[in-house]
Here is the input.
Amino acid sequence: MEKREITMSSWSPEQRQSPGGLNLHISRTLFLLLLFVASIKGVTPKPNACLLFQSDNGSSIYCHPPAKPIRYLPADTIYLAVEFFNLTQLPADTLQGASKLEELHLSGNRLENLSAELLLPVPGLKVLDLTGNALTRLPSGLFKVSVSLHTLVLKQNQLEALEASWLHGLKALEHLDLSGNYLRTLPPGLLANFAALRILDLSDNRLETLPPDLLRGPLHLARLHLENNRLRALGEELLAPQPELHYLFLSNNKLATVAAGTFHGLQQLDMLDLANNLLTSVPKGLWTSLGQPTRDMKDGFDISGNPWICDQNLDDLYQWLVANKDKMFFLNDTCCAGPEALKGQTLLAAAGAH
Ligand SMILES: *[C@@H]1O[C@H](CO)[C@@H](O)[C@H](O)[C@H]1NC(C)=O
Ligand SMILES: *[C@@H]1O[C@H](CO)[C@@H](O)[C@H](O)[C@H]1NC(C)=O
Ligand SMILES: *[C@@H]1O[C@H](CO)[C@@H](O)[C@H](O)[C@H]1NC(C)=O
Ligand SMILES: *[C@@H]1O[C@H](CO)[C@@H](O)[C@H](O)[C@H]1NC(C)=O
Here is the structure.
């Protein structure tokens, strides 16, 4: 079996300052022993060693504190987790020799950037999870050879802006999670090459607007998370190219304007969450395409927490509500903010009185 040493100091600069007596070297014999024990028992006997599992498909390695990050990657490693170590940097050659790697989990560290060469040895990588690091950017070319990567999780980092070039090379991406960052805008063309994208999570950012062509690339988007941002308006074009969208999350934004045709392209919507926005009214025709027998909104909709003005401008919505009220969440929190005479009344009661 081929092995490679990753020096402790390169994995964790913090440890470098306290070398006294820390013998972190796992001998080749012990390593093989661990592999052997892990393969028969599924666990390692030593609390400060990484867990190693072997199957016909290859080795899977799980490193969590108090274990020390592993220093040898078997050549047949298909799964590597090095999580919650507060690592600030990864050496560029960390994955050298692990050419079969399919999943890399690095959540709960403090990585601020990555080397552009990091993923070059692992063209078969399918999943990269960087949840909960301190990334402010990615190097251009990081994904140059990542043609198999289908899941990229950058949740809870410190990204304030993205550059489309950071994601160049990804062709098979199905799930992109950028939630929990500080994004204010997105660059045009960001998703242009991601025809296979199924799940896009942009929730918990600071997005005020979206490029109108954001979703022109994906052809099969099924879930779109935009909740907890600062969006003020939704334009007609944004969702038009998404006939397979099933779940649309828009709660906790500042939406005051939704264009009449916004939802017309959504032929299979199962759930719509518009709660806690600034909607006072909606244009005629907005709802007509939703909740029809073939698009039955089976998992419900939520329009609560908006300052609805219950006048004749809502006639269109009233009709739709009455027909679809069994799918409505938080009926009692979906209230009129005006006119004065109807303040506090539920929208459904206002609809019934109409
Ligand atoms: C090996 O890979 C195959 C195909 O990806 C998968 O179905 C199987 O569950 C894997 N076996 C193990 C033990 O992980
Ligand atoms: C990582 O940092 C946190 C917060 O400072 C600390 O509580 C934790 O023990 C650290 N973990 C390791 C493995 O050093
Ligand atoms: C990350 O950024 C720091 C500070 O700019 C730099 O010293 C370091 O070399 C970078 N590391 C990588 C892997 O690019
Ligand atoms: C909503 O209000 C109605 C009428 O006041 C009441 O009967 C019902 O229990 C309330 N539902 C909830 C979930 O609070």
Summary: DSSP finds five helices and 16 strands in the chain. The first strand starts at residue 51 and ends at 55.
